[in-house]
Amino acid sequence: MPDPMDLEYAREVLRTESDAIRSLIDRIGDSFKAAAGRMLACEGHVVVSGMGKAGLVGLKISATLASTGTPSHFVHPAEAVHGDLGRIMKKDVLLALSNSGESEELLRLVPKVRELGASVISLTARADSSLGRASDIVVELGRIEEACPLGLAPSASTTALLALGDALALCVQKARGFNQADYAFFHPAGELGRKLQKVADVMRTGDRNPVAREETQVGEAIALITKARAGAVSVVAADGKLAGIFTDGDLRRLLSRNPQGQQERVGAVMTRTPTVIGPDRLVADALRILREKRIDELPVVDGRGAPVGMLDIQDVLGAGL
């Protein structure tokens, strides 16, 4: 029985859609810059709208905007003229998506948005389409041949819309200076959230972070470690800055040469100038250091070098990394 799946046609679909995206590169110019600038300056929300498949693409673009620092929500154009117009305000920007630029539902919505005083940016094939003429700024897609064997089902055009929307959202993100810390705030859950946790979020502090002076006896330092159920104690100099760390490895080395070593000063047997990390660094960075150095504990110090916490490999594992 012949295989009904035409793999070469599947490859052609991918070529057609990738060609559609490549065709946009030369179209990035003044209108794109104006659209991104208007979105960056928006004091309200970037409200995204589109009908059918373009609307589904718009949902994703709106989600990307919101997660990268640009307040955004989606309004269905058909629902908008049945009450959801109240979701749009004067300070908002409407980002309207339609390949043809002739979507009846969008064309009913845009005049009302203009009456509210909000501005309209459209992503559409032609600036001279009905939607283009009604917009403040038009970013043209140009003519795009669909990958559908009938040349009808939105496919290459929606791929191009999505790519263009991503380009706008990410350019605005870059211009906004939206950084890793900002991204972590908006993504507190899941794998992304775990990777973007800060050391301060998972380090051991207070009673769980034992600290000793250099003159403290080893026996007392061991008691501190035991009480905190930790794997090491931070050792500080007279000025309160970190002078070293005393670990169970240091203890084993001490006892191997002096079984009565518990009377010695911890400052004499500690590991000096240990690898440290700041509380604002990412837990992912701490994990990389722990792996590269093949150590189990990482003292956390503030800007002046004083210990403020301890990061144990178990803490990193507990954070889901």
Describe this structure in words.
- There is one protein chain.
- The protein is of the alpha/beta class and 321 residues long.
- It has two domains: 7-178, Glucose-6-phosphate isomerase like protein, domain 1 (Rossmann fold, 3-Layer(aba) Sandwich); 199-318, CBS-domain (Roll).
- 46% of the residues lie in helices and 16% in strands.
- It has 15 helices and eleven strands.
- The strands form three sheets. Strands 2-1-3-4-5 form a five-stranded parallel sheet, sandwiched between helices.
- Strand 7 and strand 8 form a beta hairpin.
- Helix 2 (30-41) crosses helix 7 (156-176) and helix 3 (53-67) runs parallel beside helix 7.
- The longest helix has 21 residues, at 156-176.
- 37% of the residues are buried.
Strand order of the largest sheet: 2-1-3-4-5
What percentage of amino acids are in beta strands? 15-25%
Assign the CATH superfamily of the largest domain. Answer: Glucose-6-phosphate isomerase like protein, domain 1
How far from one another are the termini? 49 Å
CATH architectural category of the largest domain: 3-Layer(aba) Sandwich
Structural class: alpha/beta
For the sheet with most strands, the description reads: 5 strands, parallel
Rough outline = elongated
Number of domains: 2
Relative helix content:
40-55%
Give the helix tally: 15
